[in-house]
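From the methods appendix. Each design record in this collection lists the tokenized structure first, followed by the designed amino acid sequence. Records were kept in a plain field format so they could be parsed without special tools. The example shown here is representative of the layout used throughout.

RECORD:
FOLD TOKENS (303 positions):
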């Protein structure tokens, strides 16, 4: 019987599916079980979310490990190189939260455009500040989507309902995806200079680290907004704070941060920033899909 270590919480229905498939599950309790390196021996698979780090040391400590399944989109908490060297297969479930993340992008864009957070704070403080909170429409504005993969395309499709012009940039060929969604493939420079809203959908890699910094903010319209629901390190947070203070851009919406939770809250407190605690995939529907897909992949690989 294959043994599975569930290191981070997943849906109860997913656990039941794996048990029904004849897998032996051990749900990890970090406080009781101690370092994961001391627990990994004897397991064929480990299931993680974002909290548990599957480091080189963890993989080297394993003796029967064949599979790592990340229940979610990214793989930056798994040492892919070490896994490959050890012959351990690594999978994730990027398809599960696509719709939820795309909808979150529009939540942040609408919130920024219509000053929702400021208005709510004002009303809770018993202040009626209608004249100071005039917003802007999304209708017929230009939306720049950086990273036109699964989530970027879902954002592009929904932007069509608002008659937005969608500019898309990616390092891979996206011409077919653009034709299907009505977007226009452009260079990153053109996207930055023309867009009224920019949304980021790229993984955190050495080449995307701080890809939006001072140079990019200076080239954006001073009426433009930046939204990041991808990975915190893609945006240079110090440069963003300066850009907001100097009026280089109109505002930003961040669901992800370089350190989570942030170590320095100055940026989060900025009046031109809407901040949420990594909620983009936190919907009941997305979590259910994550659990189902995780169980399916574990069962398929260990069958």
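DESIGN:
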């Amino acid at each position: 019987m294959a043994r599975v270590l569930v290191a981070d919480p997943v849906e109860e229905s997913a656990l039941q599916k794996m048990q029904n498939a004849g897998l032996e599950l051990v749900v990890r309790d970090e406080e009781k079980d101690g370092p994961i390196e001391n627990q990994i021996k004897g397991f064929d698979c480990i299931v993680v979310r974002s909290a548990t780090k599957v480091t080189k040391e963890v993989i080297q400590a394993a003796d029967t490990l064949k599979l790592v399944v990340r229940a979610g989109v990214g793989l930056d908490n798994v040492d892919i190189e070490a896994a490959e060297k050890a012959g351990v297969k690594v999978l994730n479930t990027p398809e599960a939260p696509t719709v939820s993340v795309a909808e979150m992008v529009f939540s942040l864009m609408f919130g920024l455009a219509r000053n929702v957070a400021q208005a709510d704070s004002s009303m809770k403080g018993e202040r009626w500040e209608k004249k100071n909170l005039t917003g802007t429409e999304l209708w017929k504005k230009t939306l720049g989507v950086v990273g036109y993969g699964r989530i970027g395309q879902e954002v592009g499709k929904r932007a069509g309902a608002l008659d937005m012009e969608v500019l898309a940039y990616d390092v891979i060929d996206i011409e077919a995806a653009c034709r299907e969604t009505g977007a226009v493939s452009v260079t990153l420079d053109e996207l930055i200079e023309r867009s009224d809203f920019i949304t980021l959908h790229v993984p955190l890699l050495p080449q995307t680290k701080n890809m939006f910094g001072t140079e990019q903010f200076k080239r954006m319209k001073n009426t433009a907004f930046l939204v990041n629901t991808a990975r915190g390190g893609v945006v240079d947070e110090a440069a963003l704070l300066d850009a907001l203070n100097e009026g280089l851009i109109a505002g930003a919406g961040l669901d992800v941060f370089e350190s989570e939770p942030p170590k320095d809250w100055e940026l989060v407190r900025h009046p031109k920033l809407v901040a949420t605690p990594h909620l983009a995939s936190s919907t009941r529907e997305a979590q259910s899909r994550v659990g189902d897909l995780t169980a399916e992949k574990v069962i398929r690989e260990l069958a």
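APPENDIX NOTE: The mean pLDDT is 95.
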